Amino acid sequence: MTAERNDGMTYAGAGVDIDAGNAMVDAIKPLVRATRRPGADAEIGGFGGLFDLKAAGFTDPILVAANDGVGTKVKVAIETGRHDTIGIDLVAMCVNDIIVQGAEPLFFLDYYATGKLVPGVGADIVRGIAEGCRQAGCALIGGETAEMPGLYDGADYDLAGFSVGAAERGTLLPRPGIAAGDVVLGLPSSGIHSNGFSLVRRIVEASGLPYDAPAPFAPGLTLGEALLAPTRIYVKPLLAALKATDGIKALAHITGGGFPDNLPRVLPEDVGIAVDLDAIAVPPVFGWLARTGNVAVPEMLRTFNCGIGMVVVTKASTADAVIAALTQAGEAPVRLGSITARGPEPVTFTGTLAL
Question: Which H or E run contains 303?
């Protein structure tokens, strides 16, 4: 009689634990369930996520989709062992790009890839994603967890997010008619958000400070905690302002490329924007980065948001109403500048960035 051989290769032996993946899905189901909204009430675990536009209240919708990641900010999360807010960043980077087009984010999907699945880490990441979805009012309807030994080292992982929103036909932004004299408003950021972290990490390395050292610019926090402050999600206050007034002509999310690269994306070719740097209350983290890394002001303005995460363009005649609507919704808008005739550079600066 031939003995049965038990030394054959297995997927688990190659480093992929299907049972761990299934355990993680079970662990995150309550988190996903908490993000349900009209149009999305199915459980995760199917082959695709479902969303009912009619149940969400849309009549003649245009869909708007966005995807993004959080860049090397994940390295700070990994090196500090703090994984519960990076998911908020992931959602924010997608849904903020959807709201600037006048659309309401409806649902979100995530992609989490790692060398070795650690269910506790994965659950913390999804906990942040669920919190981001809650802040944005969108449903987490699915995702993918990929365990890829040999591609990612040790505890390394990466994240990608995908979101879809909708707007009724004829309501998308930017609207026609942006013209010289229009008012530019700025909405404060919570800090670095999720751009420029390759430079941030080099500056931290040059400073010689470990991530568990007290943050020089944020009393009571470690450096790692302060740098991981999650990206602000502007969806709900902007939706409220769009509903309360018809004065908003355009919105711009200040992400990679800062002011010079993001503001022209919403402008007609014949106009520019003059930004008053004196109007910006610059969070202390940016001053520390500039001083520690000897980073010039133009580089700061093109790499970081420098304290303004979202820009609003409105008619001068409706600026007060837009400011009131944003304030009522919990924002603290500042008058950041104005639309001008287009010159050699689409974005110009006056004043001084208080670093």
Answer: helix 297-303
